[in-house]
């Protein structure tokens, strides 16, 4: 792409941005009285301005209707979560019945492991990526121990090659084939939180299924960021949080995907509760569990309406824009950020390295070989909200809904001044 490291060029790119109006639909923090440059949508997305309306609706219904809000609110609470399934299915490439919203991410992964990690004396191993997100590591270890197995013998980590910052698909598939009929589960983060790499999910899923394993994906950094086709790829299950690129608020509700082959079955293992039983007989209080025909069968409790109301607000925008348009801008603005980084590197002869491969979403991870933490703190003090990961990485995620090309240019100037100072 033909880019220039000037304010005028950045403003020209903004003028041609089809999504530029959505920037005004978000609340921005301020530092030193100025609106920040926000690069941490991969950690917590900004608050959409329409969120308040959705939450206020629930609060008003609670005040005016109390318990009757379950059935007589404008958006009745007892099926509130069902409104999210269709727009979410479009985001993740699923059928509507394969998607549900409940709990939080690691809770949902534990629930899904009950169904999809069924170790035997021979087939019990789990394949994941080296240094998976800590919560996933803890989950794997506790699940393996719960089944009376030793994590050191059971969890197989795919490593990067020496001197490389990314995983190779051929290495992952080779390890799947090597473990073979001892493999019970493949569960990898679809987009790595540290380096921003997008894993090649389709061939990895195919390879796992070919040796007889179940295949799931932790999509915390993927949903709302990259193109997903979970149903067509034959993925068994997936889960994701909603507070990163989905902009639903801190610690908010998680989404799950369960392939249709496991739906509407009484013979499939899962932990069960009241809200997973059939909707039309739920209030008969029958002692027998009759699973919902869709992924709601994995719900155990009534939905946290105040938690999922902001999620519905955000999905309204995703529905209006569509993933294709978001990805188009994501590619362009991330490429511009990469260009700016290379320009600054050339101008100041600095010592940093982009460790994110070309298979990426909208995150660039920058490894600092010299400046370290003081440069990160300089950026934060000067209105650049970025993210630090040990030992020496700054993560930058220009979320396409609300980041501008001018932000990228301004960041470059602040970065240059910070490098020269330190």
Number of strands: 15
**CATH architecture of the largest domain, please?**
3-Layer(aba) Sandwich
Q: How much strand content do the residues show?
A: 5-15%
| Helical residues, percent | 25-40%
Overview of the structural elements:
Helix 10 (230-233) links the parallel strand 8 and strand 9 (237-240). The two termini are 31 Å apart. The protein has 14 helices and 15 strands. The radius of gyration is 23 Å and the shape is globular. It is of the alpha/beta class. Helix 5 (105-116) runs parallel beside helix 6 (134-146). The model has no long low-confidence stretch (mean pLDDT 96). The protein has 2 domains: 7-35 and 322-421, Aspartate Aminotransferase, domain 1 (Alpha-Beta Complex), CATH 3.90.1150; 52-321, 3-Layer(aba) Sandwich (Aspartate Aminotransferase, domain 2), CATH 3.40.640.10. It has a 7-stranded mixed β-sheet, with helices on both faces. It has a 4-stranded antiparallel β-sheet with strand order 11-12-15-14, covered by helices on one side. A two-stranded antiparallel ribbon has the order 1-2.
């Amino acid at each position: 792409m033909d880019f220039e490291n000037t304010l005028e060029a950045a403003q020209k790119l903004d003028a041609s941005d089809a999504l530029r109006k959505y920037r005004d639909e978000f609340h921005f923090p301020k530092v030193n009285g100025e609106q920040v440059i926000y690069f941490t949508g991969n950690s917590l997305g900004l608050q959409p301005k329409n969120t308040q309306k959705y939450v206020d609706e629930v609060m008003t219904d609670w005040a005016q209707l109390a318990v009757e809000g379950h059935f007589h609110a404008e958006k009745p609470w007892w099926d509130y979560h069902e409104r999210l399934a269709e727009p979410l299915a479009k985001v993740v490439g699923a059928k509507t019945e394969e998607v549900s919203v409940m709990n939080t991410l690691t809770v949902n992964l534990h629930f899904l492991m009950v169904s999809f990690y069924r170790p035997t004396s021979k087939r019990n191993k789990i394949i994941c990526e080296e240094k998976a997100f800590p919560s996933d590591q803890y989950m794997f270890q506790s699940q393996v121990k719960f089944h009376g197995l030793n994590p050191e013998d059971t969890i197989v980590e795919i490593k990067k090659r020496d001197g490389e910052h990314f995983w190779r698909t051929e290495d992952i598939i080779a390890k799947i084939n090597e473990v073979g009929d001892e493999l019970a589960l493949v569960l990898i983060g679809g987009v790595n939180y540290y380096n921003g790499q997008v894993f090649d999910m389709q061939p990895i899923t195919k390879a796992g299924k070919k040796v007889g394993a179940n295949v799931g994906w932790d999509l915390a950094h993927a949903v709302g960021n990259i193109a997903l086709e979970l149903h067509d790829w034959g993925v068994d299950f997936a889960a994701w949080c909603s507070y990163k690129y989905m902009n639903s608020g801190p610690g908010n509700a998680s989404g799950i995907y369960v392939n249709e082959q496991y739906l509407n079955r009484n013979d499939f293992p899962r932990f069960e509760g009241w809200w997973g039983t059939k909707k039309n007989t739920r209030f008969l209080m029958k002692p027998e569990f009759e699973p919902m025909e869709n992924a709601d069968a994995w719900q155990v409790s009534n939905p946290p309406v105040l938690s999922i109301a902001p999620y519905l607000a955000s999905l309204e925008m995703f529905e209006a824009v569509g993933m294709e348009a978001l990805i188009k801008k994501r590619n362009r603005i991330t490429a511009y950020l990469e260009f700016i980084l290379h320009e600054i590197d050339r101008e100041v002869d600095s010592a940093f390295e982009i460790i994110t491969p070309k298979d990426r979403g909208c995150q660039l991870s920058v490894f600092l070989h010299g400046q370290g933490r003081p440069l990160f703190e300089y950026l934060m003090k000067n209105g650049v909200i970025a993210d630090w990961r040990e030992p020496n990485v700054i993560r930058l995620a220009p979320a396409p809904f609300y980041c501008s090309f001018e932000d990228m240019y301004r960041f470059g100037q602040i970065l240059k001044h910070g490098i020269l100072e330190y």
